[in-house]
Amino acid sequence: MAFRNLLERQRNILDYSLQNLYRRKEKTLFILVIFVLLISVISSILFITGSLTREMLSTVSELPEITVQKIQGGRQTNISATYLSEIESIPGVEAVDPRVWGYFYLESLEANFTIFGFDLDTLEESDYEKLITENPKFASGKESNNIFKMVVGPGVYRLFKKIAMDDTFLFFNPNWGKSIPIDIIGIFKPETELQSVDLMLVQTEAARKILELPTGQYTDLAVYVSNPEEIENIARKIKLHYPELRTITQSQIQSTYSSVFGWRSGLVLSGLLVVIAAYLVLIWDRAGGLSQEERKEIGILKAIGWDTDMILSVKFIEGLILSLMSTILGILLSYIHIYWFDAVGLREVFIGWSTVYPSFKLVPHIDLKYIMLILTIAVVPYCAVSIVPAWKAAITDPDKIIRNGN
Amino acid sequence: MLTTDKVTKIYNQNLPNQVVAVKDASIKVDEGEVVVLQGPSGSGKTTLLSMIGCQTKPNRGEVIINENRVSKLPDRFLNTFKRENIGFIFQNYQLIPDINVIDNIMLPMLPSGIPYKERIVRAEALMRQFDLMKRRTFDVKNLSGGEQQRVAIARAMINQGKIILADEPTAHLDTKLTGEFLEMISDLKKHQYTVVISSHDNEIINHAVVTKIYTMKDGQVVS
Fold first, then answer.
1. How far is CA A51 from CA A94, A178, A194, A256, in A?
2. Which of A270, A291, B5, B15 has the highest local Cβ count within 10 Å?
């Protein structure tokens, strides 16, 4: 066959495949809709996991190399300031920061907040402008006192606004006998929301009062190490010298987060397994099995001189067009779902750490390996499913198919 | 031109429902002849015609067309041979109902990679010959029985093969349409086509255009 005829034959195959998809509009549309939904659910889960993992990695990189906690009776307890200088003297340790933090449960809002003690006056001007917006209500005139002030996450601010406490919040505990008023001088910018949604960055002295932490005691110690190769060694030394202390390295936190996201995405995927299986059975039935008319058509084509490979090519291209189109549409749909509509319906599963849910803006992150994975699980099996029954019909005597088709 | 040499076709061989459809059938057809295979239903006419038309292979014996032992050809070559030499008009026409007239007629040309313009020229020539131009873009399912038959004949002739095989072509036609069909066959004969028809319709069997008749009974050619 001349090259020109060969090209024309390929064009004919493509034309006939497109014509078939158009002729069987209902079937095409049915498979397309089911396929698009399935692909979009799977890719949504992969996208959200990918973006959160990326977010998590960038967060973890800012954590101290080693976090040191005191363990008493199998649980974490306050750590004494005396450890500070002792750990600082270990060779390789660059700095040790004592930290004051904890949680505060506000019954009236049924919300749990993270309180972090911090000397707000030490915050660099540039960092302040980058991370924090001034509280418009507070900036309008009041003068903040030096000790009882804080910066809150956007989720906290939204809740406080509801109860009209968006300039000064009154912390109250029946044991204290009186409330502690803390001025809200700023709000974290929305781009930090995933990390800061439920956070209250409170002036350290005030945080101590709210968390009832005695002077000379801290929640934990952040240990900074200049040489990353030394982190594990130093963590080992700390544990060796102070068996009552627990060390958590950056890489341990990273692997815990990874497994949590992996576990959550796995959980959602396995929850969807039954639905996915049902979809696949449906698609197998509708796409894979040939109808009486389709079988007869293959018989007719064979009877008028079509080659088996041409019939298979037609079916392969039909499957390829349909599955590729579904995959692209499904991926687009999930992109819109995750990055434009803030993963509505899925976000709670993945970021439900706190009762204050962040208003969720993920940075788009499309990993090529996810696209390849989706293409592999969608296109390859579907094309195979399309070809096998057509092949069975195409190798049968056309005479037999046409007679049975009558 | 066309011979079958003691061909036998057994369906479901070695199974409890085994059927010997054709047994040791030998016929000979010369170029330009119009031959009828006649016989009652189940006598093996359609099966013999299918073997001649390369739709199924015999279990024994040989089909020889233009000195080619077609029953021994591998599938790849058989399809090319079939496209280039044989046009088949099936019982019930076997058109694709939701494709329009011109596309149905052009279907046998697609595997050969004949350029689109040439396909259109050939198809339109046949549509004019069979008075189908007005129905050109109609889906075949919307045509009358007679029109469908003409589409089936046009499709059988599109690849310009010189052998036309027709299986019970008038089974569903009235007397007028049967007459029209026989006129078309006469026309084909004038143009040196070789035609083999399987039929038990007396109007065909007794028509002057027919040059030879083979009678079949219980899968065998009896006269």
1. 32, 44, 12, 16
2. B5
